[in-house]
Amino acid sequence: MDAGANFISWSRGYLNEEYRIKLRKTIRALPPELLWWRPNDQANSVGNLLMHLEGNVRQWIVGGVGGAPDVRNRAGEFAARENASADELLARLEQTLDEADTVLVRLRPEQLSDRKRIQAREVTVLEAIYQVVQHFALHLGQIILVAKAQVPGAIKFYEDAGGAARPIWRE
Asked: Confidence class of residue 1 from pLDDT cuts 50, 70 and 90?
């Protein structure tokens, strides 16, 4: 497999498998009253972050790479307060991830160098995908931190295997 095909494959794997599974497990472990909890007015709630991830994936991959209309309301993602349940937010995000995967599965490696204009930036398709994958990881980490801090022991993704981290998140 060439580097471009490998990059697309790994990106799809992170967004469709690892990140999705870890996000589902984390959201299921989070009590409903903590979905919209904020440690302070400058911080985002888990609900805001779910909305933000959906908007980011939709804007950058579904719209930016795939050509769908850009309908994102980024400011609204952060301004929202208790407007949906965890199940509703997760379902919307998963629908967007499915749409993004439809774009990625059709993508040919030679298209990774194509240029797109996303969020008033000139980027390659590779840069757009990379932005989404790393951005998703960053906010997933924040969501996991909230859950681990508020519900200690509720989620665990790795176990020690003689000094190596053995993934158990698929189990």
From this structure: low
